[in-house]
Each structure stands twice: as structure tokens, then as C-alpha cells.
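Design a sequence for this backbone.
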């Protein structure tokens, strides 16, 4: 699921920026505008998949031009929650499967990696890359 959120960059006296995401009430920081955008994308994506895992909806942006002061910079950040999850949530999960003994023997004789075959099959069935 792709979405776009506005972020507000507030310059800090010591250099860099404080970054706020008004629609999500989260923030981060960065030294450059580019770093701020990357940090915001990461913060929004992580927050979003945590919300999904908790069974809550991810809100859409309420406005692409939020209220801000004259010295603040407003820009947009695109996020792809599905891609972020795929890139960051690669922990292994144990699954027990049952197959006929003859199939098990034939696969073991060929030194087949059961986990790899299952992953390939699931990706194919679910039309995933």
C-alpha cells in the first residue's frame, strides 16, 4: 500500500532539522534535507507496519499542505508499506508440514532444500516476486 505524507522540517540552531509528521504524530531528525526525507520515510514505514500488525488502520494524509511557520520547510514523502515490510521483515518462521513418506525419501535423495521449495511455491502461488 503506497501513500504520501507531508513532513515539516524545522531548522535547528545547532544545524540540521527536526522533522515532524503531523498526520501521524511522529517525528525524527536529520542533518540535511535529503537525510530528513530518508529518516521520515523510514519512521513512517516502521510506524505503519506496527499499526498494521496491531490491527489498526493507517490514516491517509489529511492535507498535503499542513500549517507551518515561515522558517519551516514542508515537503512530501512517499511510502510503500508493503515494500518496507518485505525488505525489513525477513525473520524466519518455523512451519511444520506433512508430506507422504515416499515423497520425503525422493526429495532427500535429491538433497532438496524443503524450506527453499516451500518459499518458491508460496511466492508463485501468491504472485509475489
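Sequence:
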Amino acid at each position: 500500500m503506497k501513500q504520501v505524507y507531508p513532513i515539516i522540517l524545522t531548522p535547528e540552531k545547532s544545524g540540521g532539522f527536526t522533522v515532524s509528521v503531523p498526520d501521524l504524530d511522529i517525528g525524527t531528525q536529520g542533518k540535511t534535507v535529503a537525510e530528513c526525507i530518508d529518516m521520515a520515510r523510514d519512521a513512517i514505514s516502521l510506524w505503519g507496519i506496527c499499526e498494521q500488525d496491531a490491527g489498526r488502520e493507517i490514516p491517509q494524509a489529511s492535507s498535503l499542505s499542513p500549517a507551518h511557520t515561515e522558517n519551516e520547510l514542508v515537503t512530501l514523502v512517499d511510502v510503500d508499506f508493503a515494500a518496507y515490510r518485505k525488505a525489513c521483515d525477513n525473520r524466519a518462521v518455523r512451519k511444520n508440514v506433512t508430506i507422504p513418506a515416499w515423497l520425503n525419501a525422493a526429495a532427500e535423495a535429491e538433497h532438496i532444500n524443503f524450506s527453499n521449495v516451500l518459499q518458491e511455491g508460496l511466492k508463485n502461488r501468491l504472485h509475489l516476486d
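The chain has two domains: 2-88, 92-129.
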